[in-house]
Amino acid sequence: MLERSDLAGNALQALHDEGYEKPFDRRDLNAATLIQTRGRQSMPLDGDWFFCVDLLDTGLRQRWYDMQPMAPEDRDLPWDWDPYAGETVPVPSCWQMLKEKWYFFEGSAWYSRAFTLCPRPGRRHVLRVGAANYDTKVFLNNRFLGSHAGGSTPFCADLTGALREGRNWLLLCVNNTRRPDRVPMQNTDWFNYGGPYREVAIHDLPQAHLTGVFAHLVPDGTDRHIRVRVEARDLDSAGILIPELGLSREVALKDGAGETVFEAAPELWSPEAPRLYDLIVTAGEDELRDRVGFRRIETRGTEILLNGRPVWLRGISVHEDDERAGKCTSEADLRRRFAHAKELGCNFLRLAHYPHHERAAELADELGFLLWEEIPVYWAIDFANPATLADARNQLRELIRRDRNRASVILWSVGNENADTDARLAFMAALAETARTEDPTRLVTAACLMNHEARRIEDRLDALRRDLLTDVPEADVETTLRLLDLLGRRIAERRSQA
């Protein structure tokens, strides 16, 4: 077996060192490395991948990612798994839906496939995984490139330095083990699927390239100002064009970002008139395109106002689940769900309890539905754990950066039905502030527990309002620990004044 080979090194260490995973738990593929890819050309990697379930994490212990192609007859010892041959599964997919024996499997599974690519000077090649549940470690040509945590948001990995001419081998180690410190943790009311269940592709980008754009109506009550923020790497300016509004401007970029505000009178997006505009950003050799709508969402007392008028949200809560495909979805399936919602008279959907496929929000933009989007801070999260908070905040940032240009999204939800404890109040307050820092144009919400006998919400989170947090900086761990005291004092002051 491989533990007796030179590849594994010291056999006792490979077999008995329970710290084997620490070097791979970098979580450096995160919101900061996420690149906007809508409208970009890509090389899809969907299709058949070699596959192996790995119950005991033998692959990390014995360094499967370092194995070189070798004919079976040339091996001194049998291999536990051959990354370059064997059983295949489709990607995207959930392994539970492929074979009955994998249905209840929780642990690591390895995916590998070859692709041919000729790197060009001055170009970068970036892998994008739409979602993989839950922890993903990325290897290319025997080199570890980084890891991502979170089961429902996309991530990117820069392949450039590890690419070689011709044939390249990509390996993903995906682990779906439920743990107390994860988001969500062990106890949920949806199935724990595993694997890369959304699209995987490689994007060919210039060395200096655009990483994102955020266009929205300035929430000043006039509906006549459009702010566009551009984010980039190694660029000092970018051109912004919204042709149908006659808007065009060059914006300077400093420290990777820049923004401008246009005066304009766009036709406002609404469910009755889901008006979208082409947005084009160019810089150097790069270009980003998107379709965006402009609308205003706010509250007045107990009313929600869309474009200054009260709107009544008539909707349903939906899961991303299919009896045959699991968490995988398709254009046809999404359109069918929206058609059913339309038949029910809905203008609103809650995409519970985790980020759904990004195409759902794109279709909602086109079809005229309002959306509640959520991260899975669900039930009994480890609220006192700073690492869990960091994981939740990253998932929230990734969701917002993915869908911030979708006019249909009016609510970012930071959690669902959590017990009202001091640690949870600080945790949720930090997430709410993160949402407002990333996107000041939308409402922030959470699904609170109800006293069903009294028919009312009894949750201190209900007391958190924007004015309670106006002077709280972007929350780090120390800020979070102090936040509860600040909120408690302010809430007490309000109550004494009342």
What does this structure look like?
With 498 residues, the protein is an alpha+beta fold. It folds into three domains: 2-205, Galactose-binding domain-like (Jelly Rolls, Sandwich); 209-292, Immunoglobulin-like; 312-497, TIM Barrel, CATH 3.20.20. It contains seven helices and 29 strands. The chain has helices at 11-16, 58-61, 331-343, 358-367, 386-403, 422-438, 477-497; strands at residues 43-44, 47-54, 88-91, 108-117, 123-129, 132-133, 135-140, 143-149, 155-158, 166-175, 195-196, 200-206, 209-217, 225-233, 237-242, 247-252, 257-263, 277-283, 286-292, 297-300, 303-306, 309-310, 315-318, 348-351, 370-374, 409-416, 443-447, 450-451, 456-457. The strands form eight sheets. A six-stranded antiparallel β-sheet has the order 3-2-4-10-7-8, with no helix packed on it. A five-stranded parallel β-sheet has the order 23-24-25-26-27. The protein has a four-stranded antiparallel β-sheet with strand order 1-12-5-9, with no helix packed on it. Helix 3 packs across helix 4 and helix 6 (422-438) crosses helix 7. Residues 466-478 have low confidence and may be disordered.
